[in-house]
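Handout, page 2. Input:
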Amino acid sequence: MKEIRIIGLLITDRIKEAGLTQGVLSEYAHLIKSRLGFHEVSEDVCSRTGVILLQLTGNHDEFEIFEGKLKEIGGLEIQHMVFKT
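Output:
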């Protein structure tokens, strides 16, 4: 059975955590099939919080290592969706 794995990341302080998060995402780019990011922007201010949705491909062991690296970053909340096809 094949799996479609989606991970949602809530970044609570983009200014502080974006660089570290981007470093991990770049290191594990081979696992990322699709990436979508959201943050609120107005004329006066850019939100400090942001959401990134990732569709992953690869094997389960690599997913675990990738998530472990993300969990080492303060200010990230991680949510999962797994679809069996």
